[in-house]
From TrEMBL:
Residues 4-123 form the Gfo/Idh/MocA-like oxidoreductase N-terminal domain. GO terms for molecular function: nucleotide binding; oxidoreductase activity. SUPFAM superfamilies: Glyceraldehyde-3-phosphate dehydrogenase-like, C-terminal domain, NAD(P)-binding Rossmann-fold domains. The keyword Transmembrane does not apply. Residues 131-253 form the GFO/IDH/MocA-like oxidoreductase domain. This is Inositol 2-dehydrogenase. InterPro entries: Gfo/Idh/MocA-like_OxRdtase_N (IPR000683), GFO_IDH_MocA-like_dom (IPR055170), NAD(P)-bd_dom_sf (IPR036291). It comes from Thermofilum adornatum. PANTHER family: BINDING ROSSMANN FOLD OXIDOREDUCTASE, PUTATIVE (AFU_ORTHOLOGUE AFUA_2G10240)-RELATED, NAD(P)-BINDING ROSSMANN-FOLD SUPERFAMILY PROTEIN-RELATED. Keywords: Oxidoreductase. The keyword Zinc does not apply. Pfam families: GFO_IDH_MocA, GFO_IDH_MocA_C3.
Length: 337
């Protein structure tokens, strides 16, 4: 069986997940190298999987054994790393969001097109069984014409330090809610036309000081008809909380609930449901399928299921959200490519 030789650049929490999946779960991929600017981290992960360790990204890209790179670094580094990988002839999987700005995203997309390499953006919820089934049922017409998308997303706590700075991460709209923007486009099968946002930093002083928000509500309208509502919060005291509804002319689909069936314990005190503390356990299988889809797109020479343009559309929505917050009015989403 042909295999794609993979390197993972950036060994924070998500980078380690992709390295583990590539090494242990993908039959048609081979982990050959890892890279991180922290030498101790690069060496420890490399030793675990018996692969090459790099602390310099340019040196990694010169490795002739590497066919594809997983970019799992802070968002503000993505554009330059995507462009360099493309110029080196390496296929690219980048974690979400694709970049901090739409202009950077366009530069990355054009670099991949010029080099004729694959570029895929990591929105793993598309590969989750519940969300994939919801999409299938919508396409089959199970709820008629989809009219309304409603989503609640609450993380257990504040993000890492760099992610609290919107100049580096894109802020709550890109660092956190870009998943929800992608799901809105994916499930409804329509582009977002206009957004109107209310939000503030009500939970964490450090987030407020960096100029980001931690509680937001986004009303939006789809092209071709339909409406949406996304509520996001950086705090959920009982754990990771994700719920989605799609209402159509003939029914409604629900994904997730407060009585999440991941685990329930019954005793004399009653029935107690326990959700998940973080998204690793909720979406691990989706990450596996996502990574497999990227590898298959290379081997089959097919367009990746989540393209650079998909990533760009999310950035465009986030930019409109920031304008809406600052100008306190509805803002049309501007297409840049």
């Amino acid at each position: 069986m042909p295999k794609v030789n993979v390197a993972v650049a950036g060994l924070g929490r998500i980078g380690k997940v992709h390295a583990e999946i590539t090494f242990t779960r993908l039959e048609n991929a081979r982990l050959v190298a890892v890279m991180d600017v922290v030498s101790e981290l690069a060496n420890s992960v490399a030793e675990k999987y018996k692969v090459k360790a790099y602390t310099d990204y340019d040196a990694l890209l010169k490795d002739p054994e590497v066919d594809a790179v997983f970019i799992t670094t802070p968002t503000n580094l993505h554009k330059e790393m995507i462009v360099k990988a493309a110029e080196a002839g390496k296929h690219v999987f980048t974690e979400k969001p694709i970049t901090v700005t739409s202009s950077e995203a366009i530069e990355a997309i054009k670099a991949a097109e010029k080099a004729d390499v694959k570029l895929m953006v990591g929105y793993m919820r598309r590969f989750d069984d519940a969300y994939a089934t919801a999409k299938k049922k919508i396409v089959e017409g199970s709820i008629g014409n989809p009219l309304v998308f409603i989503n609640i997303a609450r993380d257990p706590g504040a993000p890492p330090g760099w992610a609290q700075d919107p100049r580096l991460s894109g802020g709550i709209f890109l660092d956190m809610l870009s998943h929800d923007f992608d799901m809105a486009r994916y499930l409804m099968g329509k582009e977002v036309k206009e957004v109107y946002v209310k939000g503030d930093a009500l939970l964490y002083n450090e987030i407020k000081q960096k100029g980001d928000l931690d509680v937001v509500t986004i009303n939006f309208e789809f092209e071709g008809g339909g409406y949406g509502l996304i509520h996001g919060s950086r705090k959920s005291v009982f754990g990771y909380d994700l719920r989605t509804e799609i209402m159509g002319t003939d029914g409604t689909i629900y994904v997730g609930s407060q009585t999440d069936p991941n685990l329930a314990v019954g005793s004399k005190d009653g029935l107690i449901y326990r959700g998940v503390q973080w998204f690793w356990s909720r979406f691990y299988d989706a990450y596996v399928l996502e990574d497999a889809a990227f590898i298959n797109s290379i081997l089959r020479d097919e367009k990746p299921p989540i393209t650079g343009v998909d990533g760009l559309r999310v950035v465009e929505i986030a930019e409109a959200c920031w304008r809406s917050v600052k100008e306190q009015r509805p803002i049309s989403v501007r297409r840049t490519l």
